[in-house]
Write a structure and sequence with these properties.
Chain lengths: 223, 129
């Protein structure tokens, strides 16, 4: 006997992600899911982004990490609301974990929420968390061939941060070629070449986030 | 890397459905896996071999139907298969695209053997050889 199931494997996750998205949208919170390989500079980027924005609006962070709390300790030093999720071996965050983290955040105060995913370019691309935007971070030290190796994460992203451009003179990273590859995967991808460490190029990225926050605000006012 | 989590979900769904359909033994499970998904067929099969033990799927085969990437251009509405992850439209060079196929991670169907006692739900399931 054959039984037709026709069900997505991630159905349970998709349902929870939808609930997270509804909750966050109702509160008028802009949510950004940051995805990159380990060591691309997600936490340094977050530290300096928060530094540039925290006087303008209230920011929260959901910090995904396999075992440690190193990153959330760094971010808590910035004076923002941080909730840690340890996946204990899990290679990605899922919507269930984020739903639990949201219960521990002061959602009535927040305007912008960052979800720092577990360092991995593969699995996080498949799991919707309920965010408004996925942003991929690709760093110069990883090599310019990564977009074609991991197309899904870039196809799913709204923007890409090309981090560590201060290292360009010391590597064979081809910035033009990387941008070209990214455009082939998604032509309207917004790209921010920057160095979170030196601050070069950070303004455009910070402005983009400010724009997204004010877009959400307008929507929640008219909605 | 998340193939184990996906297979755990497959087993959960199939076991539930097998119970509802009074099928004590599952013989075959069919999945559709898109080329754009990041799930590796080999890793799915490996996870399946490990996780199926001790379940109604213990003797089941896992069949994977790969799905090619098909995109639709939102400007000229034509459908195309991208070459080498070149995702813009080859007809009008439009960049707004929709993924029609290739993102699948679906259970299509499964096959099972019915209890030899028919609808005699109360009896111990007969172990088929």
């Amino acid at each position: 006997m054959e039984v037709i199931v026709a069900q997505p494997l991630l159905k349970a996750n998709e349902e929870l992600a939808r609930q997270n998205r509804n909750l966050l949208n109702r509160r008028g919170i802009t949510t950004v899911n940051l995805i990159s390989a380990p060591g691309a500079g997600k936490t340094t980027l977050l530290e300096n982004t928060i530094g540039a924005l925290k006087n303008m609006f209230s920011i929260g962070v959901v910090e995904g990490d396999i075992y440690t709390t190193f990153d959330s300790e760094r971010l808590a030093g910035q004076g923002v609301a941080v909730v840690q999720i340890n996946t204990y071996g899990g290679c990605h965050l899922d919507a269930q974990m984020v739903a639990q983290a949201l219960e521990r955040l002061p959602l009535d105060k927040l305007k912008l929420l960052f979800i720092e995913n577990v360092g991995n370019l593969v699995c996080p691309a498949e799991f919707d968390l309920g965010e408004n935007y996925k942003v991929a971070i690709l760093s110069v030290s990883e090599g310019s061939d990564k977009p074609k190796k991991y197309p899904l994460v870039f196809q799913e992203s709204e923007a890409v941060v090309l981090n560590k451009i201060d290292l360009l003179p010391y590597t064979d990273f081809d910035l033009a070629a990387a941008k070209e590859q990214l455009k082939e995967i998604k032509n309207n991808l917004v790209m921010f070449p920057l160095s979170a460490k030196t601050g070069e190029g950070m303004e455009a990225w910070v402005e983009w986030l400010k724009d997204k926050v004010s877009q959400t605000e307008k929507l929640s006012v008219t909605g | 890397m998340h193939e184990t989590a996906l297979i755990a979900e497959v087993l959960k769904t199939v076991q539930q459905s097998a119970l509802e359909n009074n099928l004590p033994k599952v013989t075959n499970i069919k999945l559709a896996i898109g080329k754009l998904s990041m799930a590796l067929p080999e890793a799915l099969i490996f996870a399946f071999q490990v996780l199926k033990k001790g379940t109604v799927c213990e003797d089941a085969e896992l069949e994977i139907e790969p799905k090619e990437i098909v995109l639709q251009c939102l400007d000229c509405t034509r459908e195309f298969r991208p070459q080498d992850y070149h995702f813009s439209c080859p007809f009008c060079t439009g960049s707004q695209i929709k993924i029609i196929q290739g993102r699948e991670l679906h259970i299509i169907s499964f096959e099972g053997e019915e209890n030899e006692h028919g609808s005699d739900c109360g009896s111990t399931p007969v172990k088929s050889q």
